[in-house]
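Handoff note, outgoing to incoming analyst
You'll be picking up this chain. Sequence as last confirmed:
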Amino acid sequence: MAERKPFLLRLDPKTLESLQRWANDDLRSLNAQIEFLLRRALQEAGRTPRPSYPPAPTDAPDGFA
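Most recent structure output, in case you need it:
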């Protein structure tokens, strides 16, 4: 699993309450819900992080990847 970096997020109470209700509805923790929404927003904006290494070739013979 990738390393996670903690940080402080300040939200107004009504936004926090709404996010907590949404997380409860989706059976997620508040933290997981926020991370889910941020990842989805990045995908929709075409800003998902790219891997820092080249992907392995898919046409390599067995044992050579």
